[in-house]
């Protein structure tokens, strides 16, 4: 579904922060991306989502070379990928419910078709009582859960999550991990960037470890 070949990344004229990355995200796979703070996990997630282009190397997403994809084609391709960024990116003027439903509205779905699904997902992530609240009054953990629900609502082909349990307590972290695992069983490939060792130990999954700009994979 996603393939990297000898990918390198540098910002400006600085040194390469990611070097010779070669790996694939296979259909229906589950993997953790881990490594120390500052290793480049977020930059790698952004390249997987095609919001950051590599300095060199080849990236193919759904068999498309991203260097040959025009800007007008990117939105449709990105709709196949759900992403949870650390800064949440919720719209402050929309309620929790409206933020989660937004990807469905963008593709033209009628609310009568999706309302029950959005409400059910909000209840699952513990936001059933907060669906009419605006983001400025939500806690960090609530914003995190809203961002996760928004990424999941379209049942994407690939889910990318950058520290998705960083602002929640351990019991809720376990519940969210189960949600990711259930989504994976339904066919979604999952990539979770985390430095939470307790989370890693709960699933027997592939680990991609970033250190000193290079990637080591443990299947």
From TrEMBL:
It is found in: Cell inner membrane; Cell membrane. Its main location: membrane. It is a peripheral membrane protein. Residues 2-217 form the ABC transporter domain. Keywords: ATP-binding, Cell cycle, Cell division, Cell membrane, Membrane, Nucleotide-binding, Transport. GO terms for biological process: cell division. InterPro entries: AAA+_ATPase, ABC_transporter-like_ATP-bd, ABC_transporter-like_CS, ABC_transpr_LolD-like, Cell_div_FtsE, MacB-like_ATP-bd, P-loop_NTPase. One of its GO terms (cellular component) is plasma membrane. GO terms for molecular function: ATP binding; ATP hydrolysis activity; transmembrane transporter activity. Part of the ABC transporter FtsEX involved in cellular division. Important for assembly or stability of the septal ring. Homodimer. Forms a membrane-associated complex with FtsX. Belongs to the ABC transporter superfamily. This is Cell division ATP-binding protein FtsE.
